[in-house]
Amino acid sequence: MKKLVSTLSMIVVSLSLSAQIEWNVKAGVGMSNLASMDKMISIFSYKAGVGMDIPLHKHWAIQPTLYYSPKGAKFEAYYGGEQIYEGEFKYRLHYLELPILAAYKIEVEQTAILVLKAGPYLATGLSAKCSVKTPTCNDFHQTFKENLFAEDGKYDEISYLNGEHTPLNTKKFQRLDMGIEAGVDLLVNHFMIGVEIAFGLTPLSNNLMNKKPKNIGGYLMFGYQF
User: Who contacts 80 (Cβ-Cβ below 8 Å, separation ≥6)?
Assistant: First the structure.
């Protein structure tokens, strides 16, 4: 993996030294979830970052972007000591993400360009937290102390997957995430608007509720190209 990251970095650097780079800032809002999980519900998500547009040809370019990108999902389970309550649990996973996309540009008008893009992304997890909210108990809210990228989740040892009090303990999550990203942008007078979707290929865990979940998400993006 270190060799892959080093190779991609060297390619980006060599291309940037031989081309006229245009810089951009981007931010987006959308929804994220964990694929392959029956009980998971999508949650609000966002990402923001700085990127480059490295031209290769009249129509082609390479677009690496470094994002701060929170992801996650929520699900229903149970929480409590002497009294057990139905709870809404939420995973919030914070990543530093680097997509490196191949972009094809189509001139729509003199000042408008349509950009089709796709390629791989690499991400490393910064922190992963689980929280619980129990609406029937005065809207009690608790964020558990464990960073799930660094340690197992015990969730106060009073969190349960079902009514039979099956413990909701989990093994620590995989910090590295790899996947595929694709999108469409419309660039008008340096301003851009577009959509992006991302599909994780690396399981977050090999056994989370007997599943192997992967990150997925979709975003409405806004940006400015210098």
Answer: 134, 137, 158
* Structure token pair of residue 22: 């245009």
Q: Beta-carbon neighbour count of residue 23 at 10 Å?
A: 11
H/E stretch holding 224 reads strand 214-225
**C-alpha angle 62-65-67 in degrees, rounded to nearest 5:** 160
- Note the pLDDT tens digit of each residue in 150-193: 999 999 999 999 878 899 999 999 999 999 999 999 999 999 99
What is the per-residue pLDDT across 5-47, written as a single tens digit (0 to 9) for each?
A: 565 556 555 555 556 889 999 999 999 999 988 889 999 999 9
pTM, 2 dp: 0.88
β-sheet bridge partners, residue 69: 95
Helix (H) or strand (E) run with residue 182 in it: strand 176-188
